[in-house]
Amino acid sequence: MNKKITLSTLFFFLVLTTLTVAVTATSYAETEPEDVGTATSTSTVQPTEEATPTITPTATPDATVEPKEYLIRIANYMFIPVGDKVIKVGDTIQWRNFEDTKQSRYLVNENGIWEEEQYLPYMRSVSYTFNETGVYTFYLKGRVEKKLNITVISVPISSPAPALTLYEVLGAIDATGTTFKATSIDNPAVLYYDLEDRNGYGSISFPLYDNLSIPNRKLNYTTIPWGDNIGWGGSKYAVVYSSSSEWIITKKLIDEDQDDDYLLRVGETLFLPGGWSIKPLEIDVNESEACMSISKDGVEVDSKFVTVGDYFISATYLGGPQESEIMNFTVETVFAGFNTNLVKINNIDLISADILEIKNNDTNLYDGYVIKTSNNQINILNDIDIPLSKGNAKNIISDLFLVRVNEAGDMAGLIKKITEPGIYEIVGATNASTGTMLMAMSADNPAVLYYDLEDKVGYESIRLPFYSNLSVPVGEMNYTTIPWGQNIAWGSSKYAVVYSTASEWIITKKLIDEDSNDDYFLRVGNTLVLPGGWSITALEIDVDGSEAWMSISKDGVEVDNEVVTEGGYFIYKTDLGGPQESEVMNFTVETVFAGMNCNLVKINNMDLISTDVLDLNNNDATLYDGYIVKTYPDQLSLINNDDIGLSEGTVTNIIGNLFAVKVNEAGNLGALVREVKVEEYVSPIKYIIKDGVIYEGDGYQINNYFVEVSDILLFSGDLMPEVTIYQLNSDGSYDELTTSTTLVDDKRRVKYQNGLIEIIVQEKNLTSQYTIVDIAASGFTVEYKKYVSGGVSNAQYYTSGHSPYSYTMTLLQGWNLVSTPIIPDYPDVDTIFGSNEDVLIPVYTWSTTNKQYYEVSEIELGKGYWVLALNDTYVTFSGTPYLG
To answer: Comparing 253-356 with 512-608, is the CATH topology the same?
Structure first.
């Protein structure tokens, strides 16, 4: 493999700027005053053709950073440290001859930065300052096959990072050809539909041509109101005012009924969306009254006494002919206890005070679109051509909708991105348009049945009758799935087919199914945590041989390790019950890289399946209670062999928990739904917190976790460490945490796990006085770490700041333009970013005075900073809110 190409690929995410400063290099002798000459480059010198491309935006200033100097030793006829290097514009590299034989060497550059090769007698050196971006190639005369590539980068120009997408819902696709159309009834995951009221009348349509351009006036979004409500994008809005030429609408923040209740203590605050809150101030049990107060952004806007069973109503003027009800809730009960007075409220209705004013023929509300209003509907048409692009998602009508086009450019999907953690109910199909039959297919309902937009495959279908008695008779529910290649959908997820015949199938879940665009950068020693208990660790690299030594583990135990050459595959196989071993994990080692401060391995194209197989046998009635399996050479089916009972206002799991059916309160509408639990983003990289000695009786603190080597025992002639993990409390006390201990290659491994949080202490070596351990952690951001003599009793509770305010900064792979909305308690760059190994320091900012970029040591409020991340990650720090 051409190393120049791989190095430029490694830094594909760096946006480089070309600098025009003259490049100079100076040769000098360290031990003798002999002048060996000065080499000077000219402005016409260019990097090799394989160099990283440069982009020069208009009015882009030169990047100025504190220059650094690095030493490369020449010994044993090679460059040490071995491997290609990455430096910044303005940095200097010095080559010095350290040959034990005291032989002279000649240093050659392929880019022509010197007019001739550089002669280096023993202990002589030559230096070169790199003032232009690109890839520069060097070798020693007589060893042309051992080349050194130096990649020179500069401070990038880029765009601010968007919010991190935690989950993406595919709600509709253009499976019918060149016309894309979605409606509320058929695609309720992305267009608003109310199951309870059976209302929602939105639709969007546009053509999808080969040139991926939507012509002017060919996109049409239509929404029709019901009562005082209207769908707007994927949300419910309230209509404040409407006429043929103007509408005023505002978002419904809460739309609950009497079953949604809250029990509040007097003085307790219930926080609501949009900065609103409710607080009971006092109660009068004799009069069955409660004094209730509502606030907006911490400021009281209304308070009044409400009798039990009555409504608290707060109204204000929002631009309509009369005041609009902003908030409405019922005081259901008041209760006076011995120690606590309580108020129970329910039926909250809340709208936003921020209105959306929509006028006929307005082209200013949404840039590139024109609005058409009438008495009974609103339309939005595109006023310009809309370009889409392969493999990307594009906002339509500002951010009302999001359209994703696959990599091939031959299919589009309407998607919804979820950027906040929480539990979401995805409604994928209803019987609103099909009467008494609830039916769904992958191509029509991709929100609840598996469909792959890239490969245009997915062949699941489910149907069940929806009768007035809410009972599905025996044999009338049918689920069918058809494979493609060695894959099959199962319960809205992608599975791999291990084995199949007419009477038996063995399938297993696809845990990861990525391509070459899904990259991970691993520092040597770090671990990439994967689903199903799997992980990948980069053990060592050999840049000279373009190789990486990779290890994979399952539940913390290594199952395989291999040395993989750049561009090669790591493949792990095992027996899963098929006629031959199955590939469980497969990934590509794209690049190995030795940096001045760290060694990296870039991997991608990962494929991982579960080792927990699902064995499906024809006529099996035990796999899913109440259902029978039917197998065929080319498909799988499940049929209910018991009646299925549904009920009003509830969600019923069917076929185990493969699917769920929700029935509205009236019992006259059913929907196929899926509950999605979106977790807060946690970097998949497991960090080595400490690799070194801990003496008996001492320990190591990580935030408010404490790892202590409590004792080193002599047991049956062998030394054995006693490792304990504690949780530190703010009152100075500490609690011992429950851990598990296993042996790995006869070395003890102590593990604490609580959800995503994991701390592993791996013994490496042991004496009667100390142990050498690896401490690894994942699932939380490391803000503080310290060796503590004397053990847990000497540990100090760590608070990340002097105030309860904190800010989480999301960083995407590549360069990020960021700022802070709070004044950091500890503003230095090392404190904020130093413990996150996915962040490469330094951090840069822009000088409006000097018109240059420069490195910073502290983060300040009101400034923007450029931060480089190797992988998607985040940092959290505390601070003080800015109060103006």
So the answer is: yes
Report pLDDT for 685: 58
Name the residue among 428, 460, 493, 450 with its Cα closest to residue 673: 428
Cα R_g (the chain), whole angstroms: 32
Q: What is the mean pLDDT of residues 431-448?
A: 90
CA atoms lying within 13 Å on the CB side of residue 32: 8
Two tokens at 693?
């000695």
- 74 bridge partner residues: 79, 97
Contacts of 657 (CB under 8 A, 6+ apart): none
Strands 143-153 and 85-88: parallel
d(CA 582, CA 575): 6
**815 has a pLDDT exceeding 60:** yes
Pull the structure tokens for residue 87: 């430096």
**Cβ–Cβ under 8 Å, residues 462 and 437:** no
Which residues on neighbouring strands pair with residue 213, listed in sequence order? 387
Q: What is the mean pLDDT of the segment spanning 518-546?
A: 83
Topology of the domain covering 425-503+618-678: Immunoglobulin-like (2.60.40)
Tokens of 334: 């008041």
Q: Tell me the domain boundaries of the chain.
A: 3-153, 167-245+360-420, 253-356, 425-503+618-678, 512-608, 685-794, 806-881
> Looking at the domain that runs over 3-153, which CATH code has it been given?
2.60.40.420
Q: Give 100's pLDDT tier (boundaries 50, 70, 90).
A: confident
Across the chain, mean pLDDT equals: 83
Note whether 737 and 752 are within 8 A (CB).
yes
How far is 23 from 317, CA to CA, in rounded Å?
67
Tokens 């009477």 locate to: 503
- What CATH homologous superfamily does 253-356 map to? DU1608 C-terminal domain (2.60.98.40)
Q: Buried b vs exposed e over 775-805: b needs ≥16 C-beta within 10 Å?
A: bbbbbbbbbebeebeebbeebeebebbeeee
Tokens of 349: 């209705």
Sheet of 651-654: strand order equals 422-430, 670-678, 659-663, 651-654
Q: Which one has a higher pLDDT value, 76 or 103?
A: 103
Residue with token string 């090769």:
117
Q: Two tokens at 64?
A: 């100025």
* Rounded distance between C-alpha atoms, residue 90 and residue 97, angstroms: 23
- Please give the helix or strand (H or E) that residue 589 lies within, else none: strand 582-594
Q: How is residue 10 annotated by DSSP?
A: H
Tell me the three state secondary structure of residue 9.
helix
Q: Where do we find the tokens 């050999």?
A: 542
CA 63 to the chain's CA centroid: 30
Q: Which of 612, 603, 418, 587 is nearest to 498 (CA)?
A: 612
Q: Give dist(CA 587, CA 878) in Å, integer.
A: 38
Please report, as a single letter, which amino acid is at residue 702: I
DSSP letter (8 states) at residue 146: E
Give the whole-angstrom CA distance, residue 86 versus residue 90: 12
Please write the tens of the pLDDT for every residue from 370-409: 999 999 999 999 999 999 988 888 999 988 999 999 988 8
Q: Other C-beta atoms within 10 Å of 749: how many?
A: 20
pLDDT at 673: 94
User: Which CATH number among 1.20.120.1810, 3.40.228.10, 2.60.40.4190, 1.10.10.60 corresponds to the domain 167-245+360-420?
Assistant: 2.60.40.4190
Task: Cis check for the bond before 156: say yes or no (omega within 30 of 0).
Answer: no
Instruction: Name the pLDDT band for 165 (thresholds 50, 70, 90).
Output: low
Residue tagged 């960021």 (tokens): 818
Answer yes or no: pTM beyond 0.70: no
- Which option is the CATH number for 512-608: 1.20.1270.50, 2.60.40.10, 2.60.98.40, 2.40.50.140? 2.60.98.40
Give 85 or 105, the one with higher predicted confidence: 105
